[in-house]
Amino acid sequence: MILAALFPIFGVIAIGWLLRRSGLLPDNSWGPVSRLAYLGLSPALLFTAIARADLSSITLGPFLIAAILGFLAMAAIMLALKPVLKIPDPTYTSVFQAVCRWNGMLILALGIALFGDQGEILVALVMVVSIPLVNIECVAALAVWGEGAAPNWRSILYRIVTNPLILGSVAGGVVNLAHIPVPAALMDTLTLMGQAALPLILLSVGAGLNFTTLRARPRLLALSVFLKLMIGPLVFYGVGRAMGLEGIPLTILLLTGSSPGAGSAYVLAQQMGGDAPYSAGDITASTMFCFITIPFWLWLLG
């Protein structure tokens, strides 16, 4: 069952890589495709999922607290390792991002494949609380140890608050909790837009894989991938168990901790003086190995 649910997700990612390699689409077209999927279509997906959800059936408090504690714990692990890692500070910031960031949209696709609407809602809620937290963690690390100029915190906070994924999720929550009627034609339009988001995102993930970047610091890459894909799931699962979670919410936390790195780490490393080549290598390595580790953790603990 697990492999049957995961195979289409990883299959579409593989097709994205093949499309990029084939040259069917020019290289410079994948950036706009990714932005359309993440910023144009995904908010519609999150809005419709949360607006229609039966939130009364979900124990939100312990679940969201466990998610927040999981991300804080991963940041604490990286801070504790700082004195041990004999690497340049800019490279450390990229390792920090590699371990602390997650690919929420990929996990959203997995959540839907495994658990349908409930998986979709739970991952969307984790995204709402994690986007501000993880961005602040990573920007703070880059501000202290990166080689770029001091960050403009007002601009950063503005970008977080106006993040389309957060806006779509919050709008869906307001509509749900306030029982605001949405015209059926509008809801159907947003649903159709949302259905286009995940295939484009998965294709973009595959197109972004670049195996030549694995040559950058292979031993350090092995460490960050191990921390992300092997320690991360245990941390999130352990926090969830400590909060009394079980069933689907606990498995969603496990998937959150099992997620590969996110492309935003590369962008931020470029902008704020991190080690961008290392970030590119980590994104490829963690995405490649999560094809093995996610089924393993779901089989063992899920």
Briefly summarize what is shown.
With 302 residues, this protein is an all-alpha fold. 79% of the residues lie in helices and 0% in strands. Helix 4 runs parallel beside helix 12 (276-300).
Overview of this structure, please?
By secondary structure, the protein is mainly alpha-helical. Helices cover 79% and strands 0% of the residues. It contains 12 helices and no strands. It has helices spanning 2-22, 30-52, 60-81, 89-100, 104-145, 153-161, 164-177, 184-207, 218-242, 247-258, 264-272, 276-300. It starts with a helix and ends with a helix. The model has no long low-confidence stretch (mean pLDDT 90).
Largest sheet: none
N-C termini distance: 12 Å
| Percentage of residues in DSSP E strands | under 5%
Whole-number mean pLDDT: 90
Structural class: mainly alpha
Instruction: Report the radius of gyration as a whole number of Å.
Output: 18 Å
Number of strands: 0
**Number of distinct helices:** 12
Helix content: over 70%
Order of helices and strands: HHHHHHHHHHHH
| Poorly predicted tracts of residues | none
Question: How would the global form be characterised?
Answer: globular
